[in-house]
Amino acid sequence: MAVPVTVPERPARRVSPWHFVRLKLRVLGNNFRGQTWRVALFVLGLLFGLWFAAVGFFLLAAPGLAGESRYALMIAAFGGGVLTLSWLLLPLVFFGVDETLDPARFALLPLSRRTLVTGLLAAALVSVPALATAITAAGLVVTAGALGGWAAALVGALGVVVGLLVCLAGARALTSAFATMLRSRRVRDLAAVLLAVLAALLGPLQLLVLAAVRQTDWDRLDGVARVVGWTPFGAPWTAGVDVAQGRTGAAVVKLLIAVATLGVLLFWWSRSLESAMVGTASSGPARTPRAVAGGAVAQLFPRAVGWARRDRFGAIVARECRYWWRDARRRANLITVAVVGVFVPLMVNLGGPAFLSEGGAAFDQATADSSPAMVSLTMVFVGALASLTLANQFGFDGSSFAANVVAGVPGRVELRARMAAFSIYVVPMLLVIAVALAVVLGRPEWLGVMGGALFAAYGCGLAINAFVSVLGAYSLPESSNPFALNSGAGFTKGLLTLVSMVGSAVVAVPFVVAAALLGDVWLWLALPVGLAYGGGAALLGAYMAGDTLDHRQPELLANVTPRR
Known about the structure:
By secondary structure, the chain is mainly α. Helix content is 76%, strand content 1%. A two-stranded parallel sheet has the order 1-2.
């Protein structure tokens, strides 16, 4: 008679943060396998990150290396505050967050909230931005050690570690909370507007800071630095300097403030993360579509494109028009173009920081010194910026671009339709910008010069971005977080932006030269020449890039399809 043998159950292994780090490294390795261009972009991003980190390190270590204890607290408070704010704001408006480990993929696993949060936080440390921030903040440790010895350096190092964790937890908590809020259509629309405006106002804020620095009393600025040092933005970064200057009790309290801030952020992140992993709830019963004259096909065409032909060109125009209005990512880019397009020409032609600090006197002097060449140069920038959104236009589609590939849409038709749909929203904004600048400067006779340079640069930008979008497309992750980017995509986005802006500006430079040399004759010729130049460049770009698209459709689809 067989005796049953009882096999003892193997105890489950405890999941530690190290497992998440190993998983991220393995996923990164798999993503880079066979993708030489991704490896090259990652290496370039690492080199740029290390270069900026080295610059930041020496800036923060300068008070200690020079023995200037007076400016040590000021540099630590403001430098640390800038680092923290950068981590909170830049992922929302520029680079996104690395979603190599998408939290939604852990929803069905038996992981506790604490395990998931600590694991994802540890994995977030394995990134180029985190490494660059750590190297930069090490300059504060050098300052504290040079001014106060090893004890101050030790406290400074502890503060840097806590400060880095606060940056990571704050960025993840904020983006995760926004991702949860953006499920609501109304909140999503409002958030897209606010974030785009915030992105566009980063430049104005920098000019305001420069204007304030020119008139600031340094003693008063030292008082502001002391206040910032007691906030969560500056507390962990100034603890080492406080020990070096004999304020040990203040350093202990600041470390407690930093640790408490970290705890609150982790708790907030865990709550919003759990909600984001549940999935999108139904927003209510579906509404029955209204009957539209012309049948189902006519219903797919918005009123703004009622003129479009009922063929492949018209269908793509109608689809893109709807996407540009309804997709939060696309709509935010349109708002950024509108805000930056108005602000930059006004600030450049009205004297920049001098206008902010001197007011009306600077305005009068700037309007007197402004010239058609300067106005044309700013319009070239605005036109190039307006077309920049199309640098990764196929990345917005993702795997849905396969429908166009299967349908056999010619590349020229595809690109012309996308340009037309985008221009329906952008061209009216460009007209408003040109008219507004002419009115503010009191130079209505320059309207033709402005419009000519503007549309020439915009058309050239469309042509260049047609090639960029075909040759340099990258995928956007299928994540509940609209700010998510795949690892290395942040540097790719910055590189494509640089190529597009420089290329568009160079091709449109003849309009600036003509405005400077031809005098009053150019006031009458600029607009028609600019329209013909920009329109011809856009059509030629669609024609040439369309042939490239026809031969690269499979590769393009592979590049924009998110890798699981």
